[in-house]
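JOB MANIFEST
job_type = single_chain_structure
chain_count = 1
residues = 100
[input]
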Amino acid sequence: MHHDSKALLDCMAACDACVAACLDQPDRATCVRLCLDCADLCMVSARLMARGSQFHQELCALCADIAEACAAECEKHDDEHCRSCAEACHHCVADCRKMA
């Protein structure tokens, strides 16, 4: 079944925006680390999906796990960028779980 990479790319963008905003805030190291991991995994997942890689499903399962952890961390904060990131992560998790 073919899936597009919109949820992955939206999640990557939300994570990047969250990192940029959180870098200036104290005690956000965990959030920044998870968002960086999640953004990278989303990008790689989207690329593997685009080229029909045999490893795409395994990577999608990992991507879902990381996006889930990222959402849980972002939900601890009230900032708009963290809320948006958590929401994008949840969409990504749902999409990746379908693919994995």
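[summary]
The mean pLDDT is 94.
The CA atoms of residues 65 and 76 lie 18 Å apart.
exit_status = 0
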